[in-house]
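Before the break, one more example. Copy the sequence into your notebook; we will annotate it together after we see the structure.
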Amino acid sequence: MKFKSLILVAFLTLVGSACNKSYLDINTNPNTLPTASPSFVFTNALNTTTANVINANETGSYWSGQWTQGNGYIISTTIFAYNFTNGDFNYWDGYYDNLQDYQFVINNADAYSQKYLKGPAKVMKAMLFHQMVDMYGNVPYSDALKGGAVLAPKFDDQKAIYESLITLLDEAIVDLKANPFASAFTGSDIVFKGNTTKWAQFANSLKMRLLMRQSRISGRDSYIKTEINKIVTEGSGFIAGEEVGVGGPSFYLATAGKLNPIYERWGYSANGAKQALNNYPRLTKFLFDGLKASGDTLRLKRIAYANGGESTGTAGVSTQKEIVANYNGTPFGASSGYLPANTSSLGPSLLVKGDFSRPFILMTAAEVQFLLAEAKQRYSDVTLPNTAQAYFEAGITQSFRVLGASTAGATAFKGSKVNNYDWEASTDKLAAIATQKWIALTNFSGLEAWTEYRRTNLPAIPQSMQVPDSKRPVRFFYPNTEAGSNAANVSAQGTIDAFGTRLFWDVD
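Here is what the structure looks like once it is written out:
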């Protein structure tokens, strides 16, 4: 793994934010770098996390069957024909660099009297490591993040890492409860602005995700139920009614490089010009067919713009009339015949011209409710207070809310007799939960959508038009950068088949 100098990065951050020369006079020896404050490193780490997650989410949005590629570009055979090697999809280096930032905060918070940062940093460390496992399987964990002390870290078993992350999140909650933010430093927290209760709720929500990921593994029920009951007993609860988001209006600016990264990649420049990749991601025909067949048109119109995209004259409104007939998806992997004028692009739930400062979402309240619904449906004797039906219906409501659709539309599905929407009418409750979670993750959490598809095989998304057989990726290869710098430990993982070497929670 690459080892970077965190002190240098933090110093550059300080320089970029300085307002006068005296502010820089912190180092009496010009030959020695200044010491970095954990608060500066933490803020920069959160911002860096968005840059890492957006890349993994994009690939996940494709491979979960939610997005495909617009036909105004040469088709990517790497993504849509699955022609990739260990030189592709290297999210590894960026994630480990980012993890090193959070470890620096954990290691140095006490010395700088910034103990309130330890809990949030541990939560973020747990989130990134669980995503690493979900992408690569066994990864360096116990030996990782030690800089020059361990240059060739051993790989840990992925199941053991998951259990260690539950413990890490427990530690984070203890730290959060014991160390409220100093009021002068709440600005360094660009997620919850120093609200440690919400950080604890995020930690519990991540724990539920880690636990439900393992719910189809034989012999894990007792462990999972015990851990769920511990969460309830702890008492902080879960994220509800809002998203876990980085940045927002007080952080993102109308300046190149300082916009919300989603807006800057697929939306518009700081001066309002459409980006070159504005028409690259397209919503899939499979997604649209399901929404239309179920009468789920309110969410459809928030997930996507009508054919032709956003109006140049009225922000947040489609160029064409917003009727169902004008919303057309693109078959997954199609390379011709589906140009911007006759297909739908990423909608106002994600992109609106001029709205450059939305928070970058890491986790939605809807996902949390569906996790709780699955937990209660699988394990009726856990101490979660509500019924599986109540959590399921709350998940749909939260999905409507985050998309910007009227939540009355969610209520209308109660008693509608629509399978996978109306709880009572749904013949397979777990399939209904998985299907609704997949819809709710659209545009927000592509990596999670792909991971859940690998776990549940739901919904039954079609194969890419670029692939003549049934093969699908079940993981990434270890990147060639790690194979070059940590060859013995990579080799110890055996021969990796990206289409056959399943992760521990992917039982079929």
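The two ends are 31 Å apart (CA to CA). The first helix runs from residue 6 to 17. Try to locate both features in your own notes.
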